[in-house]
Amino acid sequence: MLAHQLLLAALLLPVAHAGETILGIYLYSRHGDRTSKSHAPTNLTNLGITQIYESGTYYRNKYIASSASSHIAGLSADVVKQSQIDVQAPEDTVLFNSALYFLQALFPPVSGQAGAQTLRNGTVLDIPQGGTQQIPVYTTDTGAGLENSVWLQGSSGCTNAIVSSNNYFSSAQYMDLLNSTKPFYSGLAPVVNGTFNSSQMSFKNAYAIFDEINVASIHNSTISSSDLLTPDTLFQLRTLADNHEFNLAYNSAEPIRAIAGATLAAQVVAHLNTTITGKGKSKISIQFGAYGSFLSFWGLAQLPTANPDFYGIPDYASSMAFELFTTAATDPFPAASDLQVRFTFHNGTTTNGSTPVTYPLFGGTATALPWPTFQDEMNKFAVGDQGTWCQRCGNSTGSCASSGSSASPAPTTPSASSHSGGGVSAAVGGVIGAFVTLGLLMILGALFIFVGGFRLIHKKHMTRNIESEGSPIKTPA
């Protein structure tokens, strides 16, 4: 997990940057607290709802409210204007519901004159349900149940990414930790023996074991053999899980492993470019996704060089934002050469007392980059079209059969179908301990359904099958 010093560092930053105008943002958030992945179905908890709602409130106060410290130019402050906001989330109980609660805080109910409409006959009508505003959440039925998924590349559909992630299980680093941590994991068997048998108590299942114990430490009034869970033990559990998951999500020698981060990068650039070409008409794009996309993007963007805490799994309700801003006049809309981009991240729930921190991207030191530079750097690894995705993933069937691109060979692997370290084949595609999930592209769709106070929109399966992880897989025998 990212170290808590990030929270302290955030307090040192100014609330707003003088002389700047925010023109648009892209926000990517993890879900709130949830139940254990080892006991499907996984559900958002009341604590998770609270975390997400508090974060939504913070971002409203920063970017949206009329008194916002960094109000986005031209953004409707109270009554949502649908053309200004785009929200995406997988059709997953935890991630999709997180998006709903976040939006309730971002644009709270309106009543009275602000939300009223007058008919021709003089009748004045308020919005029903106490003024609850309906904000479309674009989603996909591909990868339903993401938070129950047990394998990093389970349904990424990217053949080369699956092979690359499997390569980790034959690496010297993995084998060293698998062997050196056997006594540590065996010693924790009494704590989780109701979920894992003795053969599963190893570094191979580092995240699964951590997740089970972490959830119990938050919600369970009693834990079996809790005396074994000393602060040092809990810290080691987290550190080992961080190591395991980062290496499944990113490898500098095999960038295809980070396909989730590559597609996320393309989305960020596409949204901010839409804001520019539309001269500020599109203001906010929000996506909810799992932590695998955070990790793979961080690796591609070289964020660990800015702070080694970026090797760690982000906590529940963590969020990162890309701010498009200018110091020039905004009427007319600034030229691309007058635009800049800033990256911020906050680990865990964002509040007025614990705010996002600005970090330099791409291994540099500048905390604000000219838009052309930012775009060029992102496009070095971004994957945003079907042909490129098919070529890099080595896929030639299904939707890739007509892409017209020749497939790239899979990353070199010593027997990718059978690793001595307990790895798994690309065909099986799963191990109980790899609980990273990928939140990838959510594309336009149809079929509107009302869910609570918000509108659920099912997006049709995109032509390239590269969205996030898929349905749960069976545990290998």
Describe this structure in words.
A hairpin with a 5-residue loop joins β3 and β4 (124-125). The radius of gyration is 22 Å and the shape is globular. The chain is an alpha/beta fold and 477 residues long. Helix content is 31%, strand content 12%.
Largest sheet properties = 10 strands, mixed
Provide the structure class.
alpha/beta
Mean pLDDT over the residues: 81
Question: How much of the polypeptide forms β-strand, as a percent range?
Answer: 5-15%
- The percent of residues in helical segments reads 25-40%
What is the CA-atom radius of gyration, in angstroms?
A: 22 Å
Q: Write down the overall geometry.
A: globular
The string of secondary-structure elements, in order, is HEHEHEEHEHHHHHHHEHEEEEHHEE
Distance between the termini: 30 Å
β-strand number? 12
> Which residues sit in consecutive blocks of at least 5 with pLDDT less than 50?
3-15, 141-145, 414-477
Count up the helices: 14
